[in-house]
Design brief:
Helices cover 25% and strands 27% of the residues. The protein is of the alpha/beta class. The chain folds into 2 domains: 284 residues, 3-Layer(aba) Sandwich (Aminopeptidase), CATH 3.40.630.10; 128 residues, Aminopeptidase i, Domain 2 (Roll), CATH 2.30.250. Helix 1 packs across helix 9 and helix 4 packs across helix 9. It is globular. The relative contact order is 0.18.
Length: 436
């Protein structure tokens, strides 16, 4: 029950490359859209009329940061459901404020930011920082302005630490004021003009200033991820939460296109801030898409509802491995280890959607794929996080399970996981999507 080493490392190389080319949620979705197009999927627009049919492969995006792809098998016409995998495109970061330029001591210029999600703030200090996102420009239709993706690529600044000489207690524990301590230094010369961020965007996109209407820009660390460890057993990389799960879900999805099952790949945004947006798991987006598919296939109400109740959801979000320096933070029996295979996540207070029925389905997929499987439960005196599964079931009463790959330093700008686990996950998801 071990993955071939070379194949596992090749999987990590592909993952690292994808993350390096996906510096924002907008780039994540556009990269997946391009790959799906190359695999013969037809792009749909939620605002236009659809033509869908059995045997067809389709995908759509929403607000540039959520994506749903689906394949329709003949069984859906008689009430068979979808095999569904859901993950999310966003990661904790900093969002650039609309009016963001500030100057200190008439010499140093900064970008003002606000935090997005629950980032480990100190992990962003003293690292090269770049920016990426989308720019909204004037177009012919005032309700459909032109959207341009942008990536500065090179480091444009840094969030500098306070020297230990000015803060002698820093190693005894430090608190950070998000308004004061987390601003990005971009210039350090009084001779340089303090350019507004819009000036840089116009230069990059080669547009006139009056064409630029607004932007959504986010910080990221442009340093590529790497495989590490004396035995190459670690992968250290930004945004593994949750691009590892999104990428391996996509890989499993396209690898099983020839199977006779209806399947759906769901990548949603804003999980890190509660999912309560039009493109998040709490929205009716997935429900509306399923209802629309059933309507275009002329399924009656009973058949449509049978399709929902015959569907199964794997909610895929990263999981916590036992920490080598703090094993006391994990439950003494229900802790995952790196390179131990995908993790089934349980919570009695329904932070996760897993129950015995859902767990059994995923365990069987792991067994058929010859992949090890682990369990995670928080310590009973420690509150845990939540994810997509139960939020989605407020819109659709789906059977399902919450799973994730084990990792360390979740929400750090550089997260650590096991190098065998991405391949383990893909193999398990392939069995889930393809088995009759």
């Amino acid at each position: 029950m071990t993955a071939p080493r070379n194949e596992a490392l090749a999987e990590c190389d592909s993952l690292i490359d994808f993350i390096a080319h996906s510096p924002s949620a907008f780039h994540v979705v556009e990269n997946f859209a391009a790959r799906l197009t190359d695999h013969g999927f037809t792009r749909l627009d939620l605002r236009d009329a659809w033509q869908v049919m059995p045997g067809g492969r389709y995908f759509l995006t929403y607000n540039g940061t959520s994506l749903i792809a689906f394949q329709i098998a003949n069984g859906l016409l008689s009430g068979d459901g979808f095999r569904m995998i859901a993950s999310h495109s966003d990661s904790p970061t900093f969002r650039i404020k609309p009016h963001c330029a500030t100057t200190v001591a008439n010499a140093m210029n900064r970008l003002s930011v606000e935090t997005y999600g629950g980032a480990i703030l100190y992990s962003w200090l003293d690292r090269p920082i770049s920016l990426a996102g989308r720019v909204i420009c004037k177009g012919d239709d005032p309700l459909r302005p032109e959207i341009r993706l942008v990536d500065f690529k090179k480091p444009i600044g840094v969030i500098p630490s306070v020297a230990i000489h000015f803060n002698r207690s820093v190693n005894e524990g430090a608190a950070f004021n998000k308004q004061v301590d987390m601003q990005i230094l971009t210039q350090a010369s009084a001779s340089l003009k303090n350019l507004d961020i819009t000036d840089h965007l116009c230069q990059i996109l080669d547009i006139e200033p009056d064409a630029l209407l607004d932007f959504d820009l986010y910080a990221y660390d442009p340093t590529p991820g790497c495989i590490a460890g004396l035995d190459d057993s670690l992968i250290i990389c930004p945004k593994q939460d949750n691009l590892t799960m999104a990428f391996e879900s996509y890989r499993a999805f396209v690898d099983t296109m020839d199977s006779e099952t209806s399947k759906m790949l769901i990548i949603l945004d804003n999980e890190e801030v509660g999912s309560g947006t039009k493109q998040g798991a709490a929205s009716p987006l997935v429900k509306n898409v399923i209802e629309r598919i059933c309507a275009k296939l002329n399924l009656d109400l009973e058949t449509s509802q049978r399709a929902v109740y015959n569907s199964f959801l794997v909610s895929a979000d990263m999981a916590h491995a036992i920490h080598p320096n703090h094993p006391e933070l994990s439950d003494p029996k229900n802790f995952p280890i790196l390179n131990g295979g995908p993790v089934i996540k349980y919570n009695a207070n329904q932070k996760y959607m897993t129950d015995a029925d859902g767990a059994a389905v995923f365990k069987l997929a792991c067994q058929k794929a010859n992949v090890p499987c682990q369990s995670f439960v928080n310590r009973s005196d420690m509150a845990g996080g939540s994810t997509l599964g139960n939020i989605m079931t407020t819109q659709l009463p789906l059977r399902g399970v919450d799973v994730g790959n084990p990792m360390l330093a979740m929400h750090s700008t550089r997260e650590t996981a096991g190098s065998k686990d991405p391949l383990f996950l893909r193999l398990a998801l392939q069995k889930f999507l393809s088995e009759q």
